[in-house]
Specification:
It contains 14 helices and 15 strands. Helix content is 39%, strand content 16%. The structure holds pyridoxal-5'-phosphate.
């Protein structure tokens, strides 16, 4: 009997003993094609030799130095690399150890910024329904997934939610994308006015929604309108790129495709590529200045922030991501994945929508394609897809509650950026078989 409190109790998990390229091998010698990078983490596959070497090299120098005593070359270098790559207007980096930590730090940063600039009344956070921002208390409160929040609601800090930008289900008949973006912008503005225009501190959103919606990007112009509204009321825009960032959508930052610059960005997952737990918050000069000219500190910190081995791994991952062939492959293989899924599943009566950007794709499963009626949640189609896929040697990332936290099923695909054409075809084949088996069962 395992002494670990596993995520689900009473199921037997295979034991991963090795990883190579885009495969994980278990103790029975079965290999699994990692079609989801775990949870959109393993962007360079498993055991990438260059990243392992960078970590070993750092281990030989210094493995840990507390950030209240020292900085390190690797942490400084990683911060420089990130700012070099980030859109102009993001100027400083705060290193953490994962996505939830990044979101928590971003929220506290936003709050302290308003204290520093003498607007201490600003305290409200607005985010979107059907979003996921992490599982710590502040991040969970920010996320808008009803099921994840339900039992913890009594202990969550107050947050507010508006509609996501989810064209497949919410775009109205004859409504243009422009009109839809405008409708959502009006909803955000109404929420701000309801809370008090000088009471809101931040609007938080994933540029491309991952875990809770399944690779849903915004309609054109949506984030431009959001940026304008935040500016109009002096609200900080926090974009959460923990899942969709670091090249996943074909650009290093997903927000590059929206033509806007937020005040704060959170990244993690692909930043460390799974080689080390690491996340980061990128912030504007304006926020940095408020801290520097005010109290002179950011009142936050964790024992492992700026960890040298994590920074060494991330620094190498980032260097590899910026090689020209990497984003090219994400775009080419992403197009191939979309085309393959369209061909294999586009006519299926049980597939309502196939969407995404780069190597970040989602398949929404429905009971009736015409009405978009979801399957009865009690059938747990998403769990069945996962099981059927694992039987076929495919890791994918299905989730239920797509529509409202309870109803709806989708599958998220996020293979490593080193994936090859024949492996894409294998992902399509295995996933199509798994979905067919899951709905038939
Ligand atoms: N934000 C987003 C958008 C995520 O997708 C996730 C994890 O899936 C998180 C935050 C939380 O990250 P972590 O699981 O590393 O704490």
């Amino acid at each position: 009997m395992s002494k670990i409190l596993h995520r689900t109790i009473g199921t037997t998990l295979p034991k991963a003993i090795a990883g190579a390229g885009i495969y994980i091998v278990d103790s029975n010698g079965r290999s699994y094609l990692d079609g989801s990078g775990g949870a959109a983490v393993s962007c360079l596959g498993h055991n990438h030799p260059e990243v392992l070497d960078a970590m070993k090299m750092q281990m030989g120098r210094i493995s840990y130095a507390h950030t209240s005593f020292f900085t390190t070359d690797v942490a400084e270098q990683l911060a420089e690399q990130l700012i070099e790559l980030a859109p102009k207007g993001l100027d400083y980096v705060y290193l953490v150890s994962g996505g939830s930590e990044a979101v928590e730090a971003a929220l506290k940063m936003a709050r302290q910024y308003f204290v520093e600039i003498d607007q201490p009344q600003r305290r409200h956070i607005i985010a979107r329904r059907q979003s996921y921002h992490g599982n710590t208390i502040g991040a969970l409160a920010t996320g808008g997934n009803a099921w994840r929040r339900a039992q913890f609601k009594p202990i969550l800090p107050e947050t507010h939610h508006v509609s996501p930008c989810y064209a497949y289900r919410d775009l109205q008949v004859a409504e243009t994308h422009e009109a839809y973006a405008e409708r959502l912008a009006a909803e955000l503005e109404a929420k701000i006015l309801q809370l008090g225009p000088d009471m809101v501190m931040a609007f938080v959103a994933e540029p491309v929604v991952g875990a809770t919606l399944g690779a849903v990007g915004p309609v054109a112009g949506y984030f431009k309108r959001v940026r304008q509204i935040c500016d109009k009321y002096g609200i900080l825009l926090i974009l959460d790129e923990v899942m969709c960032g670091m090249g996943r959508t074909g650009t290093i930052f997903a927000l590059e495709q929206e033509g806007i610059v937020p005040d704060i960005v959170t990244i993690a997952k692909g930043l460390g590529g799974g080689f080390q737990p690491i996340g980061a918050v990128l912030l504007s000069e304006e926020i940095y200045r408020a801290f520097a000219d005010g109290s002179g500190l950011f009142q936050h910190g964790h024992t492992y922030i700026g960890h040298p081995i994590a920074a060494a791994a991330a620094s190498k991952v980032v260097e590899i991501l910026t090689r020209p062939e990497m984003m090219e492959n994400v775009i080419r293989m992403g197009d191939r994945l979309q085309a393959g899924l369209d061909e294999a599943l586009g006519q299926s009566p049980y597939v309502g929508d196939i969407r995404g950007r780069g190597l970040f794709r989602g398949v929404e499963i429905v009971a009736d394609k015409d009405t978009k009626q979801p399957f009865d949640p009690s059938r747990k189609i998403h769990s069945r897809v996962k099981k059927e896929a694992m039987h076929r040697g495919l890791m994918c990332y299905p989730m239920g509650g797509t529509i409202d936290g309870i109803q709806g099923d989708h599958v998220l695909l996020a293979p490593p950026y080193i994936v090859q054409p024949e492996q894409i075809d294998l992902i399509v084949e295995r996933l199509s078989d798994a979905i067919r088996a899951a709905v038939a069962g």
